[in-house]
Amino acid sequence: MNTANQARVSDIMICAIARMLQDGETVFHGVSSQMPMVAMMLARHLHAPNLVHLNIPGGVNPSSIKKASYSSAGADLLASAEAYFPLEQVFDLSMRGGLDVAFLGGVQFDARGNVNASVIGDYHKPKVRLPGGAGSAVLIPTAKKAIIWRTKHDRRTFVEKVDFVTTRGNVWRIVTPLCVFAMKDGALMLESIHPTSSLEEVVQNTGFEVKYDDIRFTPMPTARELSVLKQIDPFDYRSSEF
To answer: What family, per the record (predicted)?
Structure first.
């Protein structure tokens, strides 16, 4: 089967994220996080059956995400869960060093891994005032690994210096429609380029110098991964952010 002709950018991103998750890890995603939600379910079905899935409603290891049409924070994730673990306990767990991975977002990112989710422009006279850090301000510094995903990759998103530092800390990977960045020695490095993109496209759409030690490409989704995605996400929630 030629998976290259079937996989979309959303599929490539989901599979790349799922492969980052290890068996036995405790992993959290928040609201409006359909991509991480699907990636966590994919990992549990394939290589990480003992992954612990935490979320906003407090549902531990929901058996299905097929009814999560509104967001990734609906009551359905609790109704089909194995146990209840409320949000305040997630923050406590992270601050005690027990949260392995947190999926978080933002609007601006710079080469040093700073995240802006507060304002565009001057803080006191902003062009746009954003929702703010919310859980990111706590979880990015305290989770062992913070994975950020963003369905837009352009020079307004990846900038030389963020307009405001909402949070910084344990940013481990950033996954975009073009590539994967990894944090190494205090700076973002290009880890892999998606086969649907190119080094030139990544450089043209990144506002800071793109550094890399080698040119690598993100593996395409396998036939098995695509098959499981159709089973666990038949309504294609993973593409809803595009």
So the answer is: Belongs to the 3-oxoacid CoA-transferase subunit B family.
Q: Per the domain annotation, does 114 fall within a domain? A: no
For 33, 113, 142, 162, 211, the CA distances from 156, given in Å and listed in that order, are: 21, 15, 27, 10, 18
Rounded CA separation 108/123 (Å): 14
- Residue 19 is part of a domain; what is its CATH number? 3.40.1080.10
pTM for the model: 0.94
**DSSP conformation class of 57:** T
Minimal CA–CA distance to 89: which of 123, 139, 131?
Answer: 139
Which domain range does residue 213 map to?
A: 2-104+133-151+169-239
pLDDT in tens, 177-223: 999 999 999 999 999 999 999 999 999 999 999 999 999 999 999 99
Radius of gyration of the chain from its Cα atoms, rounded to whole angstroms: 17
Question: 136-145, pLDDT tens digit by residue?
Answer: 889 999 999 9
- In the sheet where 101-104 sits, what is the strand order? 52-54, 26-28, 101-104, 145-149, 171-175, 179-184, 187-193
Q: How many domains does the chain have?
A: 1
The answer to whether position 68 is within a domain reads yes
